[in-house]
Fold this protein.
Amino acid sequence: MKAQMKNAMIIAAAAVALAAPAFAQDKSTLEYVTTKGTVIHANMQGQELELPMTYKTDGSYVTSAMGQEVSGKWRIDGEKLCTVSAMGGGSENCIAYPAGKKPGDEFKVTNPMLGEVTVKINK
């Protein structure tokens, strides 16, 4: 009887261990954004902009806009990505990102400075 119970417990433990990856939570949209980077497509006063964004683990980011490198700081606040641009006068902008987005996905968000922009998460 003890041997059967021991075997049942071993099988149950193995099943839980094998199932754990299936229960692992997918990364959030913002985790993908900040680990993979993005390309932001915007229209500023009639001029199309493509802004490749790279987010570093130290909480800084870099992009290039119209041939100039722009840097700043980023942080996550719930479902919002908050950034402070070195060129933005030090004011923080927080933008809500939709849940469930993955690398390769495109979606629209509203940026306080650029209006509606399209964000594509890099693969």
DSSP finds two helices and eight strands in the chain. The mean pLDDT is 82. The first helix runs from residue 2 to 23. The chain has one domain: 29-121.
